[in-house]
């Protein structure tokens, strides 16, 4: 109840205003003012200007937000660094054409510079731009005397510009909110690099610079302009009916959002290339697997790393010396961005043909492109960085490659006859060699039958009939790495079997060995290989290889030195190591990992066994989701799947899955909600705790929430490190995730948005699933579940986590 009142109060503060004023006015004159709950609304009712407070904050700001969108979304803040401390603020327009925000003591806390415009008015446009213009002027009039678009906050709207006005020195750039409840500028800025061809860069206060690809696609148009008067980027949408925005968030990330009326939510546009790191001389192609590929004429610098899904080392040229005009070839790559511009030169007077000739004459030139539609020339020297492809739009890039690789060299043609003759000469020798190989293969096959040994190797077909596209190791190598599976190296035990620490090629690894008595078997083993080898995300544990030999089924993973999350949150001593900041970091990592599985991986994957013991922590306490033996692929056009074999862990399973065998991404959302409550409280959902009249942690959290006592759920080891508003928000999200009705549970995309946007109001959760009072005995519950399971012919298997 307490949270409901708080949210309602914030909404009232943000969206309440004098109806007669707001409906009639998009403009104020020097004789008018905006104060208290008054507001301006643009002529078409698209945007609104007024006073607001971020969620759970007492500070008050003057800002602009969407008028009709039900999710509060602030796009511009005037007094970012100087908030009002009470509701007495007044916005006034002076006769000198300047806007000023005053306190009740008439102190000015924000203002614009005076302008020379006569009869000034301040008008809020349907574009979201607040302008100072001459009274009676239209939107098509010359540039306003002042406009908010010249002083953006964290949001880029259609029609806005980023970049430098050379004549006035005005530099427009985005800075993120310092936190979801603090709109003051953060430590990053999104700017346009005016050196050479304009490019978007992320700059931080320590001087680091990161290239940011903002390029036109199916929905967005990004237009770079470079003239003697300006170096800018403008942004627009291809369809005026689309409501969109580009946000530079407090994590230093640039996100493109589109409003979806049907879902009533902002949906972020992301693809695989936002989640992986492709190194130099490689190109990223969204929605392909693998996402990173070497450019023609190059090969991976580290074949082993690439086979593990790590392409960050990039590629190198197969032939280091190019012929400098004596036969080198060019490969056209369409639909790309321009590579990083730091090692490029440009000449706007050259044609594309002249650009080609100049590149082939220069030994250092590795690629070239026209500046825009055949006009101008850009040439790159050395390695090519940050290259990606687009399904629609993009540029044509010509990449230089050695003729010997392309098969275009005249020298290669002259040697063709010699090659053919040589092949004929060795044909007889090859035939003899084949006979010898066949003989040796027969001998080896007989030996394998005697010893019962079956080995697989990279891209080799195993006895399972599956082609495994990851490194495999023989049993001798694995036993050596684990000191013959020594008990001193055992670090855990799960449903799959024991887990050992090992040293493989001077690298610490975790070795999962399938136990013969395991509730899991070959099906789960194959599932884990087939799924994990295709996944690449920083919050998913990385599969390094496998071993299938005789009766052994072994998986080799990267080693997580800090073990599993349950060892911390359910231990009062070790739990103290996880302060509030670190727990939020872990929650965010789990959120992003699960979001990737559900939405951004090449396959839609349902984990089905998300729990604290399956969250592993690396040396920096970064969380990684593990144990994909229960995971299943769900086709993109199916919202749910039925199964007759229910597997998982009691306390984490969604009711529709445990009782009816129906699972979907919302089943994982339920498990996530339980896990979130456990992280916040330090208690197990199904543990032996005194939850009063409630049977479990879910019911206990619900009762505290409805009584406005949710702060009592907090893990005592958090002490004073946990802000009450952030704890309340996390509990709210967790209770939304464990609602009984599947349709009411949010998607992981919505969860991510709710946790990262502290200023957005949250829905009120309904009563959760598995909420029982003490009057319903455990035995009655067990009998009821047995009845349901029997009626649906469902087998419930309890899987013990490591």
From TrEMBL:
Glycoprotein listed as a keyword: yes
CDD domains, sorted: B_lectin, PAN_AP_plant, STKc_IRAK
Apple domain location: 324-402
Bulb-type lectin domain ranges (all copies): 25-145
Signal peptide: 1-24
Residues annotated as domain Protein kinase: 485-770
Example of a GO cellular component annotation carried by this entry: plasma membrane
Gene3D superfamilies reported for this sequence: Bulb-type lectin domain (2.90.10.10), Phosphorylase Kinase, domain 1 (3.30.200.20), Transferase(Phosphotransferase) domain 1 (1.10.510.10)
GO molecular function per UniProt: ATP binding; protein serine/threonine kinase activity
SUPFAM superfamilies reported for this sequence: alpha-D-mannose-specific plant lectins (SSF51110), Protein kinase-like (PK-like) (SSF56112)
Cell compartments where the protein resides: Cell membrane
Annotated TM spans: 418-443
Catalysed reactions, semicolon-separated: L-threonyl-[protein] + ATP = O-phospho-L-threonyl-[protein] + ADP + H(+); L-seryl-[protein] + ATP = O-phospho-L-seryl-[protein] + ADP + H(+)
A Pfam cross-reference name: PK_Tyr_Ser-Thr
Keyword Kinase: yes
Example of a GO biological process term: response to other organism
Superkingdom of origin organism: Eukaryota
Keyword annotations: ATP-binding, Cell membrane, Disulfide bond, EGF-like domain, Glycoprotein, Kinase, Membrane, Nucleotide-binding, Serine/threonine-protein kinase, Signal, Transferase, Transmembrane, Transmembrane helix
EC numbers for this chain: 2.7.11.1
Protein family membership: Belongs to the protein kinase superfamily. Ser/Thr protein kinase family.
Name recorded for this polypeptide: Receptor-like serine/threonine-protein kinase
Species: Elaeis guineensis var. tenera (Oil palm)
């Amino acid at each position: 109840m307490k949270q409901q009142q708080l949210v309602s109060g914030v909404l009232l503060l943000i969206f309440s205003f004098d109806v007669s004023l707001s409906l009639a006015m998009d403009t104020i004159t020097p004789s008018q003012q905006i104060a208290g709950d008054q507001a301006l609304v643009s002529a078409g009712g698209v945007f609104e200007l007024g006073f607001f407070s971020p969620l759970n904050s007492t500070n008050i700001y003057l800002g602009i937000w969407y008028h009709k969108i039900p999710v509060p979304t602030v796009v511009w803040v005037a007094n970012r660094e100087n908030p009002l401390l009470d509701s007495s603020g007044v916005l006034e327009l002076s006769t000198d054409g300047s806007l000023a925000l005053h306190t009740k003591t008439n102190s000015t806390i924000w203002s614009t510079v005076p302008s020379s415009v006569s009869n000034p008015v301040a008008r809020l446009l349907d574009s979201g731009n607040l302008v100072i213009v001459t009274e009676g002027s239209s939107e098509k009039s010359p540039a306003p005397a002042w406009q908010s678009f010249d002083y953006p906050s964290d949001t880029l709207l259609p029609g806005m510009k980023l970049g430098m006005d050379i004549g006035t020195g005005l530099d427009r750039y985005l800075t993120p909110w310092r936190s979801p409840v603090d709109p003051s500028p953060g430590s990053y800025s999104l700017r346009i690099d005016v050196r050479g061809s304009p490019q978007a860069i992320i700059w931080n206060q320590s001087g680091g610079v990161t290239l940011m690809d903002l390029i036109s696609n199916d929905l967005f148009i990004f237009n770079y302009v470079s003239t003697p008067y300006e170096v800018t980027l403008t942004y627009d949408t291809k369809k005026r009916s689309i409501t969109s925005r580009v946000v530079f968030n407090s994590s230093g990330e640039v996100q493109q959002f589109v409003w979806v009326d049907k879902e009533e939510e902002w949906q972020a546009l992301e693809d695989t290339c936002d989640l992986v790191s492709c190194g130099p001389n490689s190109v990223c192609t969204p929605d392909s697997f693998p996402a990173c590929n070497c450019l023609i004429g190059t090969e991976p610098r580290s074949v082993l790393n690439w086979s593990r899904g790590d392409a960050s080392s990039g590629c190198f040229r197969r032939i280091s010396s190019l012929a400098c005009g004596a036969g080198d070839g060019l490969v056209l790559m369409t639909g790309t961005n321009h590579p990083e511009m730091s090692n490029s030169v440009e000449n706007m007077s050259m044609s594309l043909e002249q650009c080609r000739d100049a590149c082939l004459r220069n030994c250092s030139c590795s690629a070239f492109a026209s500046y825009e539609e055949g006009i101008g020339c850009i040439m790159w020297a050395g390695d090519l960085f940050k290259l990606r492809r687009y399904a629609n739009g993009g540029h044509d890039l010509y990449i230089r490659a050695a003729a010997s690789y392309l098969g275009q060299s005249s020298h290669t043609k002259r040697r063709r006859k010699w090659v053919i003759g040589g092949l004929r000469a060795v044909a007889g020798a090859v035939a003899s060699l084949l006979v010898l190989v066949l003989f040796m293969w027969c001998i080896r096959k007989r030996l394998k039958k005697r010893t019962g040994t079956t080995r697989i190797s990279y891209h080799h077909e195993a006895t399972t009939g599956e082609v495994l596209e990851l490194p495999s190791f023989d049993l001798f190598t694995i036993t050596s790495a684990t000191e013959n599976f020594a008990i001193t190296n055992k670090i855990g035990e799960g449903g799959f079997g024991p887990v050992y620490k090992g040293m493989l090629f001077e690298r610490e690894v975790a070795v999962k060995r399938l136990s013969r008595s395991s509730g899991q078997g070959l099906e789960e083993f194959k599932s884990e290989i087939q799924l994990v080898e295709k996944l690449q995300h920083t919050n998913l544990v990385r599969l390094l290889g496998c071993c299938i030999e005789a009766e052994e089924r072994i998986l080799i993973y990267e080693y997580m030195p800090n073990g599993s999350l349950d060892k911390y949150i359910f231990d009062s001593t070790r739990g103290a190591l996880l302060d509030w900041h670190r727990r939020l970091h872990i929650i965010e990592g789990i959120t992003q990992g699960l979001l990737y599985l559900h939405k951004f991986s090449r396959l839609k994957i349902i984990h089905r066994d998300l729990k604290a013991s399956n969250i592993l922590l690396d040396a920096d306490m970064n969380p990684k989701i593990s144990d994909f033996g229960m995971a299943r692929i769900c086709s993109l056009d199916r919202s749910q799947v039925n199964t007759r074999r229910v597997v998982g862990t009691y306390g984490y399973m969604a009711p529709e899955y445990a009782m009816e065998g129906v699972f979907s991404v919302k089943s994982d959302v339920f498990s996530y909600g339980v896990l979130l409550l456990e992280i916040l409280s330090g208690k197990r959902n199904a543990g032996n705790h005194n939850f009063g009249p409630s049977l479990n942690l879910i019911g206990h959290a619900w009762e505290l929430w409805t009584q406005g006592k949710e702060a009592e759920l907090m893990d005592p080891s958090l002490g004073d490190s946990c802000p009450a508003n952030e704890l309340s928000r996390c509990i709210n999200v967790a209770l939304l995730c464990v609602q009984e009705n599947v349709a009411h549970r949010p998607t992981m995309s919505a969860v991510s948005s709710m946790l990262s946007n502290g200023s957005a109001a949250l829905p009120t959760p309904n009563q959760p699933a598995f909420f029982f009072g003490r009057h319903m005995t455990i035995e009655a519950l067990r009998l009821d579940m047995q009845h349901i399971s029997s009626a649906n012919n469902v087998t419930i298997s309890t899987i013990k986590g490591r």
